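User: quick one - fold this with beta-D-glucopyranose bound?
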Amino acid sequence: MKKTLCCENIHRMLCLFAAAGMMTGCAAYTPVDKTPSKIRIGVTLYDEYDTFLGELMQCFNQDVFAKQSEGGPEITVNMYGASRNQAIQNDQVKEMINNDCDVLCVNLVDRTAPTEIIDFARSAGIPVIFFNRELVEEDLLQWDQLYYVGADAFQSGTMQGELAVDAIRSQNGDKNGDGSIQYIMLEGEAGHQDAIVRSENSANRMVELGVKLDKLGYGIANWNQAQAETKMNQFIDQYGSDIELVLANNDEMALGAIAACKSQNIPEKDRPIILGIDGTKTGLQAVKDGEMYGTVFNDSAGQAQAMFDLAYQLATTGTTDGITLKDGKYIRLDYQKITRDNVDDFIKGSRSAQ
Ligand code: BGC
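Assistant: Sure. Structure tokens for the protein plus beta-D-glucopyranose:
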């Protein structure tokens, strides 16, 4: 019985997640009396179409199912997408609080503007787990019931830089033999911690490892494949085969760069070396197919599990007992390097690929 209820909840949640542009709330949700035998988790995403977060939430749903099948309290998840609008997200948080959510998982639209959400939650006494879009520490310290689940952006940039150096050395990346690598940086959103830190550290790491770099240009493509393809087409028009390397802040944008090379009929041997970050389903496939030299695994399954475990513990006991938190607040999962040599392990192990 419990499992059926859970399925209905998940089904409702997935419908909400899939329907285009309609993230106005849990209209179909019928509030029931909160009892100790039920818990309700509210989740809001900055953008319901983000590929990485879509995979993370798929894993989160699996975690809910798995826990529910062990018995215990009935778990309801109220899921919202904020369509990249902070005011909409603030309203969603209010609605989740009115719907009696026991804990909130918030993927901020604007990571510099969490105060309104924190104020609502604090006055209602409902803990908040921020995830993926990291607020500054000062904001996380505003209240003792605020947490963050994510990864260390610095590590991902460093690993991408190291992969790029391996690629250049093993694949004769300095195609024009001028002693430096002409490269393009495809960046995520301006102001996102992962975009800023990855861009800086991947290039810095390459220089530390003795590679001379010559930046031809950068394009902000907001984590988005189509935007990256447009930017890359412009770079190809401008620089043609001078581009030796593309460092993309995520796999989606690396896939955009690959698509541009294909649409301009650049033969594989003449294409730049392209690297991403995330290890999404399509990113892993591009590595396996040899179109992307490598990527850096951003552990969506691990982050989903960590967020679910913390949310469950907070909702059922009001404590963080048994959960390892750095400084009482942070959970960060490690990144891992992926190339063609180990990509199959990630494809096999990837819950989001199921
Ligand atoms: C991921 C991106 C994603 C972004 C959303 C980053 O950590 O690498 O793929 O679009 O988070 O905030």
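One thing worth noting: Residues 1-36 have pLDDT under 50 and may be disordered.
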